[in-house]
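Anyone opening a protein record will find just a pair of labelled lines. The record below illustrates this layout.
***
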Amino acid sequence: MNMKRFVIACGAVFIFIFVYEWLFHGVLLRELYAQMPTLWRAEAEMHGYFHWLVIGQLWLAVLFCLIFVKGYENKGLAEGVRYGLLIGLLFIGPDMIFYAVQPLPAKLIVDWSIGGLLEMIIGGVIVAAIYRPVA
């Protein structure tokens, strides 16, 4: 494994995930979350847990890239799309489980599923672009 490429991929995917999740959850879904205040920490309280959010996103980025690299087939951006699609589909399972065990609206589960699928596909394209063949 080329460590330099791996670190670059992890960094790029982490930055993408951080920005995407802030836009998706913090901007796009903000009003929907506000309709369920008893299910979430208060915004002021969340600030004390922000480091856990960053650690979780970094964990996701590193494992996302590691799994990609272990199965890397040198097939270009299409490989990244396929990989991201598969990981995104995998994450829909827990979304459905959350729906079964928590009083979450179906709209939120659909939004999480679609948003997560899109996030993972773009993440896959990013890591595939970094691992593209070098001329």
